[in-house]
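Q: A small favour: would you put together sequence and structure tokens for a protein?
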Amino acid sequence: MRLRPTALGYLRTDVSGVEQLWDEAQIRRLAGRLGYDFSGMIVYDPRTERPPLARLKAQATRLDAEAVITPGPAHFECGKVPESLIEHLDVITVSPEATYARWSTGSLAPSPPWPMDLP
């Protein structure tokens, strides 16, 4: 049993561009701030690979991950977080900072990240 939940990072090279290292650092920072054990980054290059949702889900299952953290919704096809991914994992975006939770009421509206910062 793990003491902290596991999270994966995910980004697209064509969306991050020259900001890729910054995006990776932001993902790692948010994972730490939210209390996740960060287990690795999946970097997708659409010029050389097929869309990675199956790979992302498989890696999450293998690592028993609870969440995937991405720089923003633009890193997914069609610029929005796929519902099929939310069925398996919580999806957390860095900007805007939001959580698409598996346990949500069925709406794809983001909820605040958890744990929430208290005043």
Q: What stands out?
A: The first strand starts at residue 6 and ends at 12. Confidence is low (pLDDT under 50) at residues 114-119. The chain is about 30% helix and 20% strand.
